[in-house]
Amino acid sequence: MIRAINIDDIRFRNELLPGDLGYIAYIHGQLYAKECGYGLSFEGYVLEGLLEFARQYNPAKDRVWVCEYEDQMIGFLIGVHRHRGNAVQLRYFIFLPEYRGVGLGKRLMDSFMAYMKEKGFKKAYLWTTNEQHAATSLYIKYGFKLTEEKMSEAFDKLLTELRYDLIID
Predict the structure, then answer these.
(1) Nearest CA to 89 among 139, 30, 32, 55?
(2) In this structure, are residues 65 and 108 in contact, taking their beta carbons and an 8 Å threshold?
(3) Does residue 125 contact residue 163 with C-beta atoms inside 8 Å?
(4) How far apart are the first and last CA of the chain?
(5) Residue ranges covered by each domain of the chain
(6) Burial code of 17-50, b = ≥16 C-beta within 10 A, e = fewer?
């Protein structure tokens, strides 16, 4: 029997530890292959982005949220500062399917918005695909607006990549 998961039992840490980035790539590769049919090109894309992040990571400007439940990493979100335009990119927003529907997405987005305010970011953006309906709905609830669409086969299948932007006055 699967017991109900309480959001208060999920631990959030903002410290990036060795192995975290590898696990982010692992979860993305496995989950998106299973749920969306993405191929190795997608995992390569994730690995390239994580390499860039690891090389430029600045704990004073960037923020990571590692979600843990019973000492297992179950999800992530990363805010990556971008010098161009003094913006932050929302990346690697993912958690395991069995933790969906408990308020984890809302908790992470609330934390992301608080981080933006704390660091003085007025702009944020993210890229996703047309297949990520639940995530897209959440982004829109937080004020993100669709600003770009492009057809792509970058993940070994035809889909539409979507860019969402947020500007805070």
Answers:
(1) 139
(2) yes
(3) yes
(4) 48
(5) 12-167
(6) eeebbeebbebbbeebbeeeebbeebbeebbebb
Angle at which helix 20-36 crosses helix 40-56, to 10 degrees, equals 160
126: three-class secondary structure by DSSP: strand
pTM: 0.92
22: Cβ contacts below 8 Å, ≥ 6 apart: none
Task: Report CA-CA distances (Å) from 80 to 3, 144, 151.
Answer: 35, 16, 25
* Whole-angstrom distance, CA of residue 21 vs CA of residue 75: 11
Q: Which of 169, 167, 101 is nearest to 138 (CA)?
A: 101
> Is the separation of the CB atoms in 121 and 88 below 8 Å?
yes
Q: What is the pLDDT of residues 34-92, one digit of tens each?
A: 999 999 999 999 999 999 999 999 999 999 999 999 989 999 999 999 987 689 999 99
Q: At what angle do helices 104-119 and 133-141 cross, to 10 degrees?
A: 40
Q: What is the Cα–Cα distance from 159 to 36, expressed in whole angstroms?
A: 10
DSSP 61: T
Token pair, residue 11, equals 């631990």
What is 12-167's CATH number? 3.40.630.30
Greatest distance between any 2 Cα atoms in the chain: 50
